[in-house]
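Chapter review: from sequence to fold.
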Amino acid sequence: MFKNLDAGGKYTAIKQVAGEYTISELCKLFGVSRSGYYAYLKRRATDRDKLVERPNQGSL
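The token string follows.
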């Protein structure tokens, strides 16, 4: 059903509807692991932190 989506698309979809269903249910539905989903969230947070830090580094 969701085979057309890459992993990032699946994780994004899970994040969008996470308040309506459990993460476990959504991961089963999309065929991804819970650990993969949480690793994705952690990577996204780290990527955002790097983007915030970059402008500050140039002002020193």
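Two observations follow directly from the output. The radius of gyration is 15 Å. The chain has a mean pLDDT of 82.
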